[in-house]
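Run log, item B.
One chain of 203 residues. Sequence copied directly from the ordering sheet:
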Amino acid sequence: MKLLGTPTSPYVRKVRLVLLEKNIAHDYLIDPPREPGSLVVRVNPLGRIPALILDDETCVFDSPVIAEYVDSLNDNPILIPRDNALARMRVKRWEALADGIMDSAIAVRNERLRPEDKQEPGNITLHNKAIDRALDFAASQLGEQTWLCGDALMLADLALFSTLVYLDLRQPERDWRATQPTLLTWYSRVAARPSAQISLAEQ
């Protein structure tokens, strides 16, 4: 299978980490959708990344769908609980929180890329406050736990890790490490994993 994406996309990073953690063979192809000749726009009707092309040429798109599909391919490890509805919901809720932070961070970046006289300061403030609240919530829910959900690494951890890497890249002035020491301890634990080391080296 082939994963199409870019090293700066937090959604791509999440999927890449899932593939690496589960040791699933794949080719990772850097393919910005805006570049002329991009394969992404030919295989994904939405023209977005990540896009996962299966061996039969089926294209799987949208990072939560890809992550769930990939997790179903083997049991080593299981990143999304399968037999406990409440545990599954908790992992998927963490993913939704992480993806929501990504959405807001990208909205802020896109707003700031506009000419200064065309920017909407209220929109930037709205999304930055959402990020603040979400990070506070994440820290309060994590507490003293080793992992976000239970006693093992889950999709929840990979999703939030990808989000924080993106904040480092696009909002370095936020300095979440100083304001969220609880998250920093957990982040360092995830960052030490081989999958994270590979992913970080690619950006």
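Observations after the first pass:
- The first strand starts at residue 2 and ends at 5.
- The beta strands are 2-5, 27-30, 51-53, 59-61.
Flagged for discussion on Thursday.
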